[in-house]
Amino acid sequence: MIRVKKIAHATYEIPDVDKQVEYYTEVLGLTVTGKEKDAVYLASTVDHHSVVVRKGAQAQCTRVGFQIGPEDDLNAFEKQVQGHGIKTQRKKDPEPSISDLLTFEDPKGTVMEVFKREAFAGQRFPNKGIVPYKLGHVAFHVTDVKHVTKFYCDVLGFRESDWMADFFSFLRCGPDHHTINLMQTGSNRHFHTAFELRDWAHLQTACDYLSLNGYKLLWGPGRHGIGHNLFAYHRSPAGLITETFAELDRMNEELGYFEPRPWHRDNPQRPKVWAKDPSASNLWGIMPTDEMHK
Ligand SMILES: [Fe+2]
Fold first, then answer.
1. Within 10 Å of residue 214's Cβ, how many Cβ atoms?
2. What is the pLDDT of residues 101-134, one digit of tens each?
3. If DSSP codes are grouped into helix, strand and coil, which group holds residue 138?
4. Is the pTM higher than 0.85?
5. Are 250 and 177 in contact (CB under 8 A)?
6. 189 C-alpha to center of ligand 1: Å?
7. Within 13 A of 223's CA, how many CA atoms are on the CB side?
8. Rounded to the nearest whole angstrom, what is the distance from the C-alpha of residue 238 to the centroid of ligand 1?
9. 43: CA distance to ligand 1 center in Å?
10. Residue 85 Cα, ligand 1 centroid: separation in angstroms?
11. Cα 59 from chain centroid?
């Protein structure tokens, strides 16, 4: 089976595009790499874009992009998707830096964009704003977590890293503990989008910078049990939740366990089902506010 190797970008529909783009550039520290009539492209790394903002009636995440490997065959990947009875589309030059794009919908209606990265943008890291390393993961509320989890594993080649009881799955497509996570709550919608920072010091700088710019934390800083990442959540102007994180568990795929860390309780730390316990959410103790679930 051909597996996607990396989360590349996420596309959002936003009522006030200018305000959200200002937040992404001035506060998060992403770079505008392209503007079209109805889309703004923003990047954090070698990719041309990590975030795409389009005008829409309500704030939502509509698309998620994934890269396959340089040796992988997109035609063969398309056949693999169609083998599951899923309708696919193919587009030539649909977005800057992407010459050949395969799209199809996941079970909740989010469009999957799968492609091969052939050209690197290579913009510099800016010197103002938080400036994350990269887009880390996108989390969704879902109505049927088992069904959607199975789709990501069977169709896109994700692996299960951890579960919280039977309602919250954490899925990886590379060494990072999770790039997609799915929480069953009774609706299908965006939960949060997470950007990776360097370390604890960077997270502190980020929290101060957010505060100086009028953004209060919804939850954190803390350390998750599942994934063991340091985290702090805030709400972007459009209402979508952003997580900044560092020190996420990294999988050694050949050995089947996560790189050992002093804060692990299991040695080695392997993928497992965690009990629905406060420690799974935050090893440091403070539970999320109701705001996190709005
Ligand atoms: Fe997260």
1. 8
2. 999 999 999 999 999 998 888 788 888 899 999 9
3. strand
4. yes
5. yes
6. 14
7. 13
8. 18
9. 19
10. 31
11. 16
Residue 182 in tokens: 């799915």
Length of the chain: 294
Nearest 5°: the CA angle 163, 165, 169 is 30
Q: Look up residue 87 and give its amino acid.
A: K
| Sequence-ordered list of residues with C-beta below 8 angstroms from that of 23, at least 6 positions apart, any chain | 236, 237
Tens of pLDDT, residue by residue over 23-66, are 999 999 999 999 998 899 999 878 999 999 999 999 999 999 99
Amino acid identity of residue 228, one-letter, is H
Please state, in angstroms and rounded to a whole number, the distance separating the CA atoms of residues 285 and 193.
Answer: 22
Residue 192 Cα to ligand 1 middle (Å): 7
Q: Which amino acid is at 126?
A: P
254 Ramachandran zone, left/alpha/beta (phi>0; psi -120 to 50):
alpha
Query: Nearest 5°: phi and psi at 18?
Result: -60, -45
Q: Burial code of 271-291, b = ≥16 C-beta within 10 A, e = fewer?
A: beebeeeeebbbeeeeeeeee
> From CA 99, how far away is CA 95, in angstroms rounded?
8
Residues forming a β-bridge with 35: 40
